[in-house]
Amino acid sequence: MLEPQLNFLKQLLEAPSPSGYERPVQDVVRRFAQEFADEVRTDWHGNVTAVVNPKGSPRIMLAGHCDQIGLLVKHIDDKGFLWVHAIGGWDPQVLIGQSVQVWTKSGPVTGVIARKPIHLQSPDDRKVVPEIKNLWVDIAARDGDDARSVVNIGDPITVTLGFREMRNGMAAAPGMDNKVGAWTVMSALERVHRGNPRAAVFAVSTVQEEIGLRGVQTSAYQIDPQLGIVVDVTHATDCPTIDENQFGRVKIGKGPVLYRGPNVNPVVFDRLVECAGSAEIPVQINGLATAASNDAAQLQLTRGGVATGLVCIPNRYMHSPVEIVSLTDLDQAAELIARFCLSVDATSDFTP
Fold first, then answer.
1. Mind telling me the catalytic residues?
2. Which residue in 58, 105, 157, 213 has its CB near the most CB atoms, within 10 A?
């Protein structure tokens, strides 16, 4: 991955984007896309759309949601502790012991999530599986008035953000799900710009996927694409306790995953496989028997129907503060999608 692309990824991962509060990360997307796109726009929902060759045919939409899971301040008690609701799907056990940031209008406020020390727990306490409603955020406030002077009800919270490079070309960060999707579609669009596209290509950093696939609905309605590719993370199954017989064989660092199944147009799938083969891009194939639990489910159903493909990035420890991906998988996904877009023209037929 080239240094400018790596810097773009780091900036995405260092910007907060809990669902409904995506503006900081979308500012990063806009700055990147304005360097090469023919047009960059933000709709009132918050989706950022960058376009290359807007008068081309057919219209291809690339969707990668930028929002991450987080928390929201629901109540500030008189002792100054913050009580929260989840934004998206958390395993509460991974939150205990985490440093967090409360994103207020005046800037981030540092906090922590913890629980009663083990020394003070009864045997019954130690058997209880915590729920979000039992967790609180400590910002070291003197009392409720002190806490309320800096934090407001409705402020979003993320675990402390940051990018950590690891061995063998891998990296860990909160929010890999799915800032890597936003990175991939915008990086693919940049490569399309360097080619000679005949199609109109719209790359969208969509919002609010984690709370119901919302941003893709509004952005796709506006664009009215004939073709669409969704980029999201998928579960890497090459770590302990995950059953390949149930979830398929998906290895981190072995290339992006192409899904087959009713949510995927078979001609789009075949074209992606063909493009990967001609460019010697390694890909992994997995099956999906139902509608996807990501933006592909809604994109396929836009207006009269969109010929949809699903390209996914293997991810270990999804919906946790320590999500791991391979930087090579990201780069290969962007290259594959760019080549797909450049292979399409007005005569292409994606009728199943």
1. 209
2. 157
Which whole-number Å values give the CA distances from 243 to 89, 163, 235, 238, 239, in the listed order? 21, 29, 11, 9, 9
User: Tokens 């928390």, residue?
Assistant: 71
E strand map for the chain: 39-42, 48-52, 59-65, 70-76, 82-87, 99-104, 107-113, 136-138, 156-159, 164-165, 170-173, 200-206, 227-235, 257-260, 284-287, 307-315, 323-326
Separation between Cα atoms, residue 202 and residue 51, nearest integer Å: 5
* Nearest Cα residue to 132 out of 175, 176, 82: 82
Strand order of the β-sheet with 164-165 is: 164-165, 170-173, 323-326
- CA distance linking residue 13 with residue 173, whole number of Å: 7
Give the tens place of pLDDT for each residue, 17-71: 999 999 999 999 999 999 999 999 999 999 999 999 999 999 999 999 999 999 9
Specify which residues 19 forms β-bridges with.
Answer: none
Q: Using CA atoms, how far apart are residues 153 and 287, in angstroms rounded to an integer?
A: 42
Q: What angle do CA 181, 26, 205 make, to 5 degrees?
A: 35
How far separated are the first and last CA of the chain, in Å rounded? 35
Check if the beta carbon of residue 192 is closer than 8 Å to that of residue 239.
Answer: no
Euclidean distance between CA atoms 238 and 199, whole angstroms: 37
Would the pTM count as exceeding 0.90? yes
What is the spatial distance between Cα 292 and Cα 265, in angstroms, rounded to a whole number?
13
